[in-house]
Amino acid sequence: MWRALVFSLLTVLSICLADDCEEWQHGASFLQSGQYLQSHSSASGLKRGFLGNPHEWWVPAACVLAPFMCLEPFDCLNNTGQLKSRQENEAQMAGPNGVNVASWCYSDPSYYNTAVLQCLVKKDLLAYAQTMFEYSVARHPLDETDATYCAYMGFCHNDQVTLNTTLDEAQVMCDELFPVPNGWRSAGAPPLPGKEFTAADAKNYAMAACAMGNYQCDVIYCRETYCKKEQYQHIFEEVASK
Ligand SMILES: *[C@@H]1O[C@H](CO)[C@@H](O)[C@H](O)[C@H]1NC(C)=O
Ligand SMILES: *[C@@H]1O[C@H](CO)[C@@H](O)[C@H](O)[C@H]1NC(C)=O
Predict the structure, then answer these.
(1) Cα(75) to centroid(ligand 2), Å
(2) Phi-psi label, residue 158: left if phi above 0, alpha if psi -120 to 50, beta otherwise
(3) What pLDDT, on the 0 to 100 scale, is given for residue 16?
(4) Any keyword Signal (predicted)?
(5) With contact defined as beta carbons under 8 Å apart, do 101 and 73 qualify?
(6) For residue 3, what are the contacts with CB-CB under 8 A and spacing of at least 6?
(7) Averaged pLDDT, 10-22
(8) Is the beta carbon of 159 within 6 A of some atom in ligand 2?
(9) What letter does residue 180 receive in the DSSP assignment?
C-alpha cells in the first residue's frame, strides 16, 4: 500500500507545497533544492510548474536530492526522449519491453533514497526490506497495510524469490503470476484503496511492483519483516480467514 502514496501525493503535490504538508516537511531539503532551482533558473517553465504541472519543476529538483534519478535507466529529465508523460504512465505502467523503472520519476520523492536506491540502484533486497519497514512503521498504519498486502499476495510462502533474484528473473515470475492479457504488462496505476485494503488492491499493487521493478524486493520485504514479526500475525490470520 505504500505505493498508494505514490500516486495520491503526486496529484496533490502543488497543494502540498502551499499547505506545507507532512511529506514536504519530511523532505525539507528537497523543497529547498526545488526553490533553489526555481530562483536560479531562467526557464519560466519551472515557475509555471511550481503552480501548475509539478512535473516541470520537481523532476529537475530531484536531480539534487537523488542524482541517480536523472541518469539512465530512470532518466527523469527525459534526456533520452523515452520518458512517458504522467498520464501515459498512469494508463500503463510497464514499458514496451516490460519493467519501466522510469515510473519512479512520478513517485513521491521520499521513495528515491529509500525504495529506489536500495532495490534498483544498489539491488540490495535485504536493505530494501529494512528500509521500507522503517519507512512504513514511521507512517503507521502504513505498516499494517503493507502486512495486509503481504498476506493477500502470499509472499510469506514465496520461496521462488531469493536475495539474488534479478529484475529479469522477476519479470518471468510476474508473467506467471499476472499473465498477458490483462496482466502486469498492461496494468495502469492502481486505484486508491478504499477504507479496507482488499485482495483486489493487493493484486493491483503487486502488478504495479512488477511494472516498476520492485516485485522481487517486495517479496523479500514481506518475508524478512512482517512475516516474521509477532505483532503482525493477527493480520495474516485475519486475511487467511477471509
Ligand atoms: C520526452 O521526450 C520526448 C521526445 O522529445 C517527448 O515526445 C516526450 O513527450 C517527453 N516526455 C515527457 C514526459 O516530457
Ligand atoms: C547469492 O549469490 C551469492 C554470490 O553469488 C551466493 O554466495 C549466495 O549463496 C546466493 N544466495 C542465494 C540466496 O541464492
Answers:
(1) 30
(2) beta
(3) 32
(4) yes
(5) yes
(6) 107, 190, 205, 208, 209, 212
(7) 32
(8) no
(9) S
* Ranges 101-110, 139-148, 220-229: which has the least confidence: 101-110
Residue type, 172: V
Cα–Cα dist 125/130, whole Å: 9
Rg (CA), the chain: 18
Better pLDDT: 107 or 46: 107
- Distance, in Å, from the CA atom of 216 to the CA atom of 173, rounded to the nearest integer, reads 9
- The rounded Å distance from CA 36 to ligand 1 centre is 24
CA 77 – ligand 1 centroid, Å: 9
The candidate with the shortest Cα–Cα distance to 206, out of 241, 175, 236, is: 175
Q: What is the mean pLDDT of the chain?
A: 81
Mutate to test the pocket of ligand 1, among 78, 84, 100 (most ligand atoms within 8 A of CB): 78
**What would the pLDDT profile of 53-79 be if each residue is shown by its tens digit?**
445 556 677 788 899 999 999 999 899
